[in-house]
Amino acid sequence: MSELSDFRLPGFLREVVRSLVPVTCPRELVSEDIKDTVTDDAERFVRTLPTPFRLGLAAGLTAYDVLAAAVPAHRGKRASKLPEDQARAYYEFWAKGPLGLQRLFAYGVKGVIAGAFYEQESVRQAIGYTPDDWTQKVTRKRLNVYRDDIARHEASLFEPDPLPLRNGTLAPSPVRHKEAS
What we know:
This protein is an all-alpha fold. The chain has helices at about 10-25, 30-45, 50-65, 85-95, 100-115, 120-125, 130-145, 145-155, and strands at about 165, 170.
């Protein structure tokens, strides 16, 4: 059994992830509380990744943040400090940029953030996503449809073993093998 690594995003990278929440998720569902919770959940997900992936993500977040300062319109500001409209345009530049690695990073980090975002109860309620209701409905239906099969299987668990033991060992196979000549 493996354990989660003792990995935490450094403070400045947490700020980059937090700044990406309103950029990569629907604006009308983003609040200050959601930003913090999504950042925490995204960090927990990153803890499950192998070390090379965590290091790659940290390097990508650092590059994304620092390289924003080189864009003249940003006036030396890092991506995590940009106003939302500029941050959104900068992210879109990365998502549709000329470099494949740049695009992969943008979509990968969006996936991590979106996964954490759509797990929030308030977001689920706002979009009408109720998987628990669906699961209960389907469970009842399947229990009704497969009731007889389930009962047969449960009964088979308590039936005598179909391979009887002889003197503490399994009975020999009834198939006879030819002797090698």
